[in-house]
Design brief:
Elements (H helix, E strand, L loop, with lengths): L1 H74 L7 E6 L2 E10 L4 E10 L2 E14 L10 E6 L12 E4 L9 E6 L12 E13 L9 E6 L13 E3 L4 E2 L13 E4 L4 E6 L1 H9 L7 E4 L9 E4 L12 E7 L5
Antiparallel strand pairs: 1-2, 2-3, 3-4, 4-16, 5-7, 6-15, 7-14, 8-13, 8-15, 8-16, 9-12, 9-14, 10-11
Length: 324
């Protein structure tokens, strides 16, 4: 009887052990399944996060492409060459330009690739041309001043002169100003670039050494119909702070010209300044160093009537927040 009880007890212990083993194995299996699904979920999340990062990189890379395109137009408004597959960081971008002459706008498209992610961005650069005829508007005119004729006014001439020759008093400087209140420039426009242009129709004779003409911001008000080498307003006997015009000594741009046609100076910072401080918009002046010899250059002025398209002009390229 005692042996039978021992047998029953051993059987019970074996059954309990077997059941415990099954429970442990089941628990381990469940834990393994949980770990597997967690790993799968984490892998999916990691991949999703990686994809989001790639897309974000592609987006900012496309924006970088736009910035590159704007930089090109800032330095050369005639730039229309596609910039393809330019590497940067983990990806590359392509920038293309398309021009709508009638609408006076340039569309910049930037396409970027980072791994399997792609993005694109677009900006439109608008432009306007300020090319006024000669008027009595004191804020919109051009003229030149001559050292050899320090009391003479030349504002109604059909030509503008530049000359570096000191001998005989031939030295000349050209002044111009533009009235922004008459143009359609939006009040919140962001200036990309700006250029002042004059049409050169006569250069010195053969053998001359080209001069470097610099463009400066004028820092005193002047009356175009009464401006001379000595005075900024001859009618009121208001003298320049220095004969030959008062201007910021730092120049915006410089230009050498040896051929006829349009000559262009960058005026981006000048226009930005004038828009920010309109009361100080006194225009610009062109000057050069003194040099001997026959160095006279002749340009068309705003009084030139035979072909109005050859008058001096200011071209402004800008971004308009109202028109992306």
């Amino acid at each position: 009887m005692r042996k039978e009880n021992l047998f029953v007890r051993e059987s019970r212990l074996k059954n309990q052990s077997g059941f415990a083993l099954v429970m442990v194995m089941t628990t381990v299996l469940i834990l393994e399944l949980i770990c597997f699904f967690l790993a799968q979920t984490r892998g999916v999340q990691t991949k999703a996060a990686f994809n989001r990062i790639q897309k974000l990189k592609a987006r900012y890379l496309a924006e970088a492409g736009l910035a590159h395109g704007l930089w090109r137009l800032e330095n050369n408004p005639d730039w229309r060459v596609q910039m393809a597959d330019l590497p940067l960081g983990d990806g590359s971008y392509t920038v293309s330009f398309s021009e709508d002459t009638l609408g006076r706008k340039i569309v910049i498209d930037s396409q970027s690739v980072v791994g399997g992610a792609k993005s694109s961005a677009r900006r439109t650069v608008h432009w306007l041309v300020i090319q006024p005829p000669y008027t009595s508007d004191t804020k919109e005119a051009d003229t030149y001043i001559k050292k050899g004729e320090p009391d003479t006014v030349f504002d109604d001439k059909s030509e503008l002169l530049l000359d570096s020759e000191e001998g005989g008093g031939k030295r000349c400087r050209t002044l111009a100003r533009f009235n922004f209140s008459k143009c359609s420039l939006p009040p919140d426009a962001k200036i990309v670039s700006s250029f002042f242009s004059m049409y050169l129709y006569q250069i010195p004779k053969e053998g001359f050494i080209p001069d470097i003409y610099r463009i400066h911001r004028i820092i005193q008000d002047w009356l175009p119909s009464a401006t001379t080498w000595k005075e900024r307003n001859k009618n009121l006997h208001l003298a320049w702070s220095a004969p030959g015009g008062a201007f910021d000594p730092s120049y915006e741009d410089s230009k050498i010209f040896t051929t006829l046609g349009w000559q262009r100076w960058r005026t981006t910072n000048l226009v930005r300044f004038w828009l920010k401080y309109p009361a100080q918009n006194y225009g610009l002046i062109l000057e050069t160093d003194i040099r001997a010899g026959n160095n006279e250059y002749k340009f068309r002025s705003s009084s030139y009537s035979d072909n109005p398209t050859l008058r001096p002009k200011l071209v402004i390229y800008y971004l308009d927040s109202r028109r992306p």
